[in-house]
Each structure stands twice: as structure tokens, then as C-alpha cells.
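From the shared-data thread, chain only:
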Amino acid sequence: MSLNGVNRRTEVLPLTGIRAYAAWWVVMFHVAYTLPSAPVPLYWFFRLGFLGVDLFFVLSGFIISYNYWQQFSAFSCRVYRQFLWARLARLYPVHLFTLLISALLLLGVRVSGGVTVKDFSTWTGGNFLANAMLVHAWRAHYVDSWNNASWSVSCEWFAYLVFPLIVLTRMKKLPLAVAIILGALFPAIPAVFVQSAFLPPCFLLIKVLCEFIAGCLVFHVYARRREYKRTGRMLNYVIVTVLISVLILIWEIRHLAPDWLALVFPFVILIVAESSGIFEMLMGSRIAVYWGRVSYSLYMTHNLTLWLLKAFLPVNKGGASILLFCVYIASICVVASATYHFVEEPFRKWMRARARPLQLPT
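Structure, as C-alpha cells:
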């Protein structure tokens, strides 16, 4: 299949696999309190799981550039319209499904008058409409409501809308060294705000765009990898060294905001994209690739699943037993997998089948 003579890109399986690790990192962040008696470093790692969303945004910038950059080298309203429809088909079915499930849960609570473990004060009709339109995270000061995981979907949709403008910056003409440096520095912008405890209006959009652009820059480093073929192995060693050093630094200097870890994510994506050997086997294994494909449904449903589990199978203050912890994880897996197979994939294909016959990558 092709678009104006441009071949459809081949899926980079390790990049699909890393989505699984990022999604489960986020999930473990939300269930970390249920761990029976995790070692301190492991618990600390899970408590940083919110950064899995940041990793997703960098990865998204890379993948969207990988699939679509060439197609926007000359802007076309028709291509733009089809691009947005393809991305909406990817995002909206699961988003709408979880939004409606949230509404049913609220209705059930109101009708039964039962005691809940969640504050519904922001679950208003106006916020529901904003969620349905995917604009609820665009406001100056975000208000958490309904399926709270969907704030990232709203921001992701905004990044898709402005993607052609990013293409127009002609960043692919940047010198390789400049692209590498900028790719590392863009994620530092939101980290500076978090460290200073000053979050400007529309901070979530700023954060997502910085990380999305970093992913776009990393793609151009990857696309021009032949230019550094001789030094590529040494570059990867340097990247790994920087990654380990930053991890140790943040572990030792606790007053640094964990958000600084996002600086290494562009390097992580570059390493994974070029991975080989054991690393490729880990990221590109069947299990990793499967959960990478299910990762969006996993991310969007895990909070709602946890809410129900906490309501019917509450965890004691001392933490969950191993059995209860396994029940939590198994339930999250079942719900995510079912959502992927019965909601995400069927409705994505249904929506794409109703687009005009212009082939686009998934």
C-alpha cells in the first residue's frame, strides 16, 4: 500500500514492545500500594511509573514521524484530513467506551447510594462534553474528571492537530549533533517547570508538545543513522552511560524532581529502534509485542478496573496479600485484552473502512 508513491512503513517490533513496558510501568504506579512487601528500590521504581506516560509521548513523536513525515513534506488538506481520521480511529473508540463506562459507574453509584472510594464532584455534564470532544486537557488549569487517564489522549490529539506545523519547521535539515542535543533538551523544559514548582497555564499541552517534538527529532537522528554508522556503537555506549548516570544521580539527590528522567527517554527510543541481540529479543518478543498492541486499552481501562476492585475487594492498610495482588493484575489483564479485541480493533477498522480510499499507516 502507498500514499502518493510513498511506501507504507514496516512496523519496528521493538518499538511496539516498549509500549508494553511503558504501559505496565504506569499500571504498577497505580497499584504499587498493593504490593505485599516489595524491596525498596523496586517500590521506588514503580512509584516513578507516571513517567511511563512521558515515554509514550516521546515514542509517539517518533512513530508519527516515522509513518507520516514524508507525506506532509508538501501540505495537502486531503492528506491532513485523512491523517486526522486515521488517528481519531486509533484514539476515539476506546476513549468513548471508557467515558461511557465511567458514566454508567457514576449512575450505578447514584442509584445505589453506595459508599465509593472516589470523589465525583468534578464529574459534571460540562466536563463530560469536554471529554467527549477530546478538549478537556486544553484548558489553562486542568480539572481531573471522568476517566482521568484520558487527559493524555486529549493532549495527544492536540499534538496530532499541530503535527503538520512541526513538519514545516524543516527540522530534518538540522545538523545531526544539533538534532541529538535538542532531542535531549526538549523534555527538560517541563522538568524545569516542575522543579521550580511553577506550572504555567496549559502546562499539560506544553509538556506533551515538548516530548512529542523530542520524539520527532529522535526520528530524524534515526533516519540519518548512516551518517554516524561508524560511531553509532560508541554513541550508544555513551547514551547508556548517561542513562545510568542520571538514574544514579536522581536516586542519590532526592530533591531533584523525577521528571528529569524524561531527558533520557529520547535516547531510550533511539536504542530500542536500533536494538539487536538479546535486547531486541526482549523488546520484540511475542509477549511484548502483543501487550504493546494492547497497551492503549490497558492504559485507558486500568484505572476504572482498579476503582471497581478497590470498591469490592479493598486492600488493607498493610498492603494486599500475594493472592489479592495477583487478582488485581489478572483482572486488569482480562479487561484490557477484552477491550482491545472487542472494542479497539473492531471499531478502529470500522472507522477506517469509512474513510475515503487513501491508504495510511495504522
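Residues 77-112 form the longest helix (36 residues).
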